[in-house]
Amino acid sequence: MARRPADAKSRALKQHGCLNPNAEAVRDELFLSNPFFDPRDLLQVRYEMLRRVREDGVTVSHAAASFGVSRPTWYQAKRAWEAGGLPGLLPDRPGPRRAHKLSDEVVEALRTAKDERPEMTAAELVALVRERFGISLHRSSIDRALARGKKR
């Protein structure tokens, strides 16, 4: 299948993390013959792949091959569907889920330092963390961590 030029739908799918990076590997007949079925739409591909096995009785191996994924990927999608329904099929956001350098211990040390000396600047707090924990942080990370604590 020839690669389609970027259009509004492709841009929207990419923005939401749903652009199928392996669209050209989708060989399912509906996706090849019916314009409603878009191999670039990862959510639609995953849903239809699961539906083929459950409703049409296609084997897992055949469905995985037709949709350009491995069998383990099919089973992963099945578990995601069972756990979260359609939203479970959406890809996870890339990147860290939280400020991984800012452990509870580091944040507590920052709060304590700030409570003892409220006039401490973010730059001084950066130096304190580097000295005490050997971690290099940006001032804005410290500001966000301390602000999260105030909201609670």
Taken together, the total number of domains comes to 2
Largest sheet: none
> Which percent bin holds the helix content?
55-70%
Helical segment tally?
8
Number of strands: 0
Structural class: mainly alpha
Rg, Cα atoms, Å: 24 Å
Task: Note the beta-strand portion.
Answer: under 5%
Oligomer class: single chain
Instruction: List the helices and strands in order.
Output: HHHHHHHH
N- and C-termini, Cα separation: 53 Å
Walk me through what this model shows:
The protein is an all-alpha fold and 152 residues long. It folds into two domains: 8-88, no CATH class; 104-151. It contains eight helices and no strands. Helix 3 runs antiparallel to helix 4 and helix 6 packs across helix 7. The radius of gyration is 24 Å and the shape is elongated. It starts with 7 loop residues before the first helix and ends with a helix.
Characteristics of this structure?
152 residues, elongated, mainly alpha, single chain, 8 helices, 60% helix
Task: Give a brief rundown of this model.
The chain is an all-alpha fold and 152 residues long. The protein is built from 8 helices and no strands.
Q: Topology of this protein?
A:
Layout: H1 8-15, H2 29-33, H3 42-56, H4 60-66, H5 71-88, H6 104-116, H7 122-133, H8 139-151
Helix pairs in contact: 3-4, 3-5, 6-7, 7-8
